TrEMBL record:
UniProt name for this protein: Signal transduction protein
Residues covered by the HDOD domain: 12-209
Cross-referenced InterPro entries: HDOD, RNase_Y/CdgJ
């Protein structure tokens, strides 16, 4: 890995105390949803992002969500943690996504779309796996922030952006510029922040699921399918959807469940 990428990761500040506390609560079997609500309420930024997510068309709750208690109760502890961590991480890293041809807000939207799609899909397969994948999908593109910063510092942003705009293989473009991909950089970021090994590895191998250890291969495959369908340069485009469905079929999934989740998301977004 490039020394500049390594140094950027080593220099990252620690995660906010609220995020660390959310992690602790969600990992503690004796903690309750009320413990999480009290913690979230102490952080105005997380409150704002949680309410924004709860009222977005991605989740289509049947009523307007006006407070933290409602949002956490509807999302559940795992999804609340994921949304809180994801938005805090992007704020912490001071996002500039111009080399990828998108704004920081659009980057956040695409991460949310990936998380929402994988969760809706996997809830029909395995609820526990759905919760794990929601957090991973929400955070799997984090490495793009470091890559974008490095490309800008190397004065390669214009060329990189031109290549990203026309590619159907973002990972290949990233390798050609920094010899790494978002997956490997993201894995290093969350290793730096002491996330558990399973979480790190399911993201690390999401560009090459066939090489993943057996215990995370399914997760890495699902993440690869999701970012194929919702890439940052053309989310939910016709080609990406077709290619993602083909990958799902090749991996042995019942593609009707994935297609139903895609159709549901498209209907909500277009409504």
């Amino acid at each position: 890995m490039k020394s500049s990428i390594i140094n950027s990761i080593k220099s990252l500040p620690p995660l906010p105390k609220t995020v660390i506390e959310m992690q602790r609560i969600c990992n503690d079997p004796d903690s309750s949803i009320n413990d999480l609500i009290k913690t979230v309420e102490q952080d105005p930024m997380i409150v704002a992002n949680l309410l924004k997510a709860a009222n977005s068309p991605l989740y289509s709750f049947r009523r307007e969500i006006l407070n933290v208690s409602q949002a956490v109760s509807l999302f559940g502890m795992s999804m609340t943690r994921s949304i809180g961590i994801g938005n805090s991480v992007r704020k912490l890293l001071n996002v500039d996504m111009e080399p990828y041809g998108i704004t920081s807000d659009r980057f956040a939207e695409i991460s949310s779309m990936q998380a929402a799609l994988v969760h809706e899909w996997y809830m029909k397969i395995d609820r526990l796996k759905a919760d794990k994948l929601f957090l991973a999908a929400f955070l799997q593109e984090t490495g793009k922030i470091i890559i974008a910063s490095d490309v800008i510092q190397e004065d390669l942003a214009a060329n990189f952006k031109s290549d990203i705009e026309v590619t159907i293989d973002i990972a290949r473009v990233e390798r050609s510029y920094i010899h790494e991909t978002t997956a490997t950089v993201t894995a290093e970021i969350f290793t730096h922040w002491n996330f558990d090994k399973e979480f790190v590895e399911m993201i690390k191998f999401s560009d090459a699921p066939a090489k993943a250890p057996d215990d995370v291969k399914e997760y890495s495959t699902a993440l690869n399918i999701i970012k194929t369908i919702i890439p940052v340069n053309n989310p939910l485009g016709e080609h990406g959807i077709s290619y993602g469905l083909k990958k799902a079929e090749d991996a042995g999934y019942d593609v009707t469940m994935l297609q139903a989740a895609i159709d549901s998301m498209l209907a909500r977004i277009r409504a």
